[in-house]
Amino acid sequence: MPVFEALRLALQTIRAQKLKSGFSLLGVFIGVASLIGAWSIVNGVNRYMTEKFAQTLFGVNTFQLRRRPMFTPNVPDSVWRAWARRPRIRFSDAEALSDGFTVPVVTAWQSSENNTVSYRDKQARDIELTAASERYFEIKNLRLATGRAFTAQENRSGAAVAVLGDAVAQRLFVDRAPLGRNVRIGGMTYRVIGVVEKQGSVLGFPLDRFVVVPALSPAQNLVNPPGILDAFLVKARTEPEMRLAMDQAEGIMRSRRHLRPRQDDNFALDTSEGVQRFWAGISRILVVVLPGVVVVSLVIGGIVIMNIMLMSVAERTREIGLRKSLGARRRDVLRQFLAESAAIATVGAAFGVVAGIALTFLIAAASPLPASVSPVSIVLGVVMGAGVGVVAGVYPASRAARLDPIAALRQE
Amino acid sequence: MTLPLPQTFRTGDTPLPDIVILTHKLTRAYDMGGEVVRALQGVSIQIRKNEYVAVMGPSGSGKSTLMNLIGCLDTPTSGEYWLNGQKVSDLVDDELARIRNKEIGFVFQTFNLLPRANALHNVELPLIYAGHGARERRAQAARALERVGLGDRMEHRPNELSGGQRQRVAIARALVNDPSILLADEPTGNLDSTTSAEIMAVFRDLHRQGQTIVMVTHEHDIAAHAARVVTLRDGLIASDQLQAA
After folding, report:
1. I need a labelling partner for A259 at 20 to 30 A (CA). Which of A35, A242, A283, B52 fits?
2. Residue A54 scores a pLDDT above 70
3. Which residue has better confidence, A290 or A215?
C-alpha cells in the first residue's frame, strides 16, 4: 500500500472517530502548545535583550566605567560589601581617561538619582534625574522629539536647562507645549529645552520617566556628592576599538589607583555583554525547565496514543484479518497503523501550533513580556509531534502486522 | 467412492497445466496446549480449471483447515500445495500475501465488508494492495460491481445494502483481481433461502464464464449447485464425486 493511501485511510479513521482521536491527540497538543508558547517568550525576550535593550539602550560598542557592575545576578553578600568599600569614580578619573584614550571615542558622564519634577501645581514623582554631559544623548541613542539637547558649552557652564522624557512631559504639560517652560527640580528652576522621543518599556519597566540635565548644573548635588560620577560612558566606533579603549581605561584606572599587578581591579568596566550575560543566566533556567515540560507532555501524549492505538488494533482485528486475506503484507498493515498514529499526533501538533501562537500573543498582550514566535519552534513542534506519533505507533502497529489472519478473521 | 486423480503425483513432479489446485498428502497438525490435534491427515486433491467444487463435511472434519490452506492463509505441516502451477506450500508470510492478492478471491460467510467504506472502495481494496493506481482501481472495481449486478449501488455503504447485495459486493471484491480461484466459505450461511438462491445464481454465472470455484458448505442443497462434491471426515477425504447439474 502506498504511503498516500495509508495517510488517506488514517485521516478517514480520525474523522470517523472524532472523540477518541481528540483525546489521543490531547497530550501532543499540550506538549507542542507549551513548547511554542514558552519558546516564543524566551525567544522574544532574547531578541529584545540583544536587539533593543543591549544594543539600543546600552549602546553599540559602548562600555561604562563604574564602581561595580550594573547587572549582577546572585552576588554573595561578601562580594557586595567589597564592592561597597571601593572608591567611587571621580570627575578627575573621567577627565584622565578622556585625555588618555588613543582610539577615537565618544564619552559622557552620568549620575542618576530619583527625584521629583514639578511644573506649577503638577508633580511627577520618582523620576530618574540624570546629570550627564552633552554626548550622553548620542551614546544612549536618545533622539529628540521636540527641541534640542544641551550643548557642550551649556554643560560646562552648568546651565539650568533640562531635557524631559516623554512620560514626564506628558505628566507635567499634558497637551501644552513644554519648550521654554520652567520646571522645578529639587527646589531649583530649570528651563525645558527638549523632549526625548517615546522609548516605551522593557520587561514592564517604563523608559520614559527621566529628566536629563547638564552634569555640572546645580542639580548635580541632588544625584551625587561633589566631584563623584556614577558612570563614565565610552562609545567606540567598532568592537575592536572598544576592546582597545577598555584596555586603556583599565590601565589608566589601575595606575591612578596605584594597584599592584596582583591586585584585582577595584572598578568595573561594563559592556552590554554584562547585561546579556545577566539575561542569559535567566534564560538558561527557562531553557532547562522548558524541555522538561515539553518532554513530559510529549511522553504522556505518546503513551496515550499508544494505548488508543492498541485499543484500535484490538477493535479492528477483524478488519486487519480481512485486509491480510485480501493481500495486505505485514508492512502494509504496519504502515497503515503507523500512518494513523502519526496523523493523530500531527493533527494534535498542528492544533498545538495554533494554540501555542495564540497563547504567545495572549501572554504578550496581557504581560510586559515581549513575544516572538520562532519558525524553528513551529517546525520542531510539528516534527516532534509527528515523531511521537510514529514512535508511539510502532508497538501497536507491529502487533497488528503480526496478527494471524485466520485468528483475526474468526474474531467477533 | 472417489474419483481417480487426473495425475499420479509424486514428490518432485509438477502438476499438469490445466490443474489449478493440487494438494499432495497435505497434513496440518496443531499444538493445542501440549496435545497435538491432527486436523488434516494427508489430503490429496486435484482441481482443474473451471471446476465448481463444494467441500463438505461435519464440523471437525478438517474442511476449515483445508480451506485455510487452499486460501494460503495457513501453511501445511507436511505435504505439497500447488496453486496455478506454483508451489506455495513452502512460501513465507509476505509471499503468501501476494499469492492471496493475485490468485485467490475470498467470499466469507459474514461478508467482511468495511462498514465505513462504500461498495466501490470495498471492492477496490485488493487492488490497493496490488499497487494499482487510483484511476485504474476505480474503473476495475466498477466493472466488477457491474458484473454482479450492483452497478447502481457503488456509492452505498454496507449498512445501506441488503444481505444479498452485501454478499454480491464481497463477490465483486473477490473477482476484482481476476483470481485463479474463487474461494467461498459458507457463502450463504447468513442469508435466507431466496437470497441464497440469488447468490447461487451469481456463482453459476461465474462458473459458466470460466471461473474456478471452491465452496465450503455444510448444506446439501447449496452443495447441490456444484458440479463436484468433496466430503471430508476426520481429516481425510471420505468421498469425491461428480454430480449432475
Report:
1. A242
2. no
3. A215
Mean pLDDT (chain B) is 91
User: Which position has the higher pLDDT, A37 or A87?
Assistant: A87
Is the complex ipTM more than 0.95?
no
Alpha carbons within 13 angstroms on the beta-carbon side of residue B198 total 15
How many other CB atoms are found less than 10 A from the CB of residue A113? 15
Put simply, the answer to whether A324 touches B68 (Cβ < 8 Å) is no
CA distance A371 to A350: 20
**Interface contacts (A, B; CB < 8 Å):** 56
* A332 contact residues in B (CB cutoff 8 A): 97, 129
Contact B97 A323 (CB under 8 A): no
A3-16 and A330-366 helices, crossing angle to 10°: 60
Which pLDDT score is estimated for A187? 86
Residue A180: band (very low, low, confident or very high) from pLDDT cuts 50, 70, 90: very high
CB contact under 8 A, A329 and B68: no
Instruction: Spell out where A120-267 has E strands.
Output: 122-132, 144-147, 161-164, 182-185, 188-196, 201-202, 205-206, 210-214, 228-229, 231-236
* Mean predicted confidence (pLDDT) in A100-124: 92
Nearest-by-Cβ selection for A327 from B74, B98, B114: B98
Q: Do B112 and A12 count as a contact with CB atoms less than 8 A apart?
A: no
Q: Which residue reads 460467510 in cell numbers?
A: B109
Write out the three cell numbers for B154. 457503488
Residues in B touching A2 (Cβ below 8 Å): 131
Tell me the pLDDT tens digit for each residue of A117-139: 999 989 999 999 999 999 999 99
Tell me which residues of chain B have a C-beta less than 8 Å from any C-beta of chain A: 68, 71, 73-74, 93-94, 97-98, 100-102, 106, 108, 112, 114, 116, 125-126, 128-131, 173, 177
The amino acid present at A108, given as its one-letter code, is: A
All residues of chain A having their beta carbon less than 8 Å from the beta carbon of residue B114 are 319, 322
Which string of DSSP letters, residue by residue, matches B51-71?
-EEEEE--TTSSHHHHHHHHT
A22: confidence class by pLDDT, cuts 50, 70, 90 = confident
Domains of chain B and CATH, by start: 50-75+94-242 (3.40.50.300)
> What residues have CB less than 8 Å from B5, skipping those under 6 apart?
B44, B46
Looking at residue A193, its pLDDT comes to: 95
Give the DSSP letter string of A307-358: HHHHHHHHHTHHHHHHHHHTT--HHHHHHHHHHHHHHHHHHHHHHHHHHHHH
Q: Please list, in sequence order, all residues whose beta carbon lies within 8 angstroms of the beta carbon of residue B84, skipping any fewer than 6 positions away.
A: B20, B103, B180
Count Cβ atoms below 10 Å from residue A79 Cβ, excluding itself. 12
The label of the residue with cell 509531534 reads A385
- The 10s digit of each residue's pLDDT in A183-238 is 999 889 999 999 999 987 766 678 899 999 999 999 999 999 999 999 999 999 98
The answer to whether the CB of A72 falls within 8 A of the CB of A313 is no
Contact criterion met (CB below 8 Å) for A255 and A161? no
Q: How far, CA to CA in Å, does A409 sit from each of A224, A319, A324, B106, B110? A: 91, 8, 9, 12, 10
In one-letter notation, the amino acid at residue A158 is G
Q: Taking 60 as the threshold, does the pLDDT of residue A1 lie above it?
A: no
Tell me, what DSSP letter sits at residue B159? G
